[in-house]
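Reply to dn_fold:

You asked what the input looked like. This is it:
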Amino acid sequence: MLKIAFIAHDRKKDEIVNFATAYEHVFTDHQLYSTGTTGLRIMEQTKLQIHRFMSGPLGGDQQIGALVAQNEMDMIIFLRDPLMAQPHEPDISALLRLCDVQGIPLATNVATAEILVKALDRGDFAWRELVHKYKPGIDELGDVK
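and this is what came back:
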């Protein structure tokens, strides 16, 4: 079971709802997370259960980023609107950077999201189980063991 996050900018919300609906059968067996409104919209149109964080501009991107920083997220589908400036652009950039640092698969458009979900459906993400199995622990002083 993987941890998958959904994020979508306002003009991409219909697109992510349609995507989640199309692949509902794949997402059903995983732990799902989302920023607030995106998660609500997906849950209204599907039977998926999603842990919702705050809205992106109110810190939801950072809440998901905290899980990424701890290597506790396995995949992110973040449908960004490249034609609209976002007031929380620094948070978005930080999330994208953290995904690169931790090697977390990240789709920022439907074409890439579909490739990731088809790989997920085939079982190509078994390597993420190894990441969790051999993840270093934290000692009582907060240092990596």
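Residues 89-102 form the longest helix (14 residues).
Hope that clears it up.
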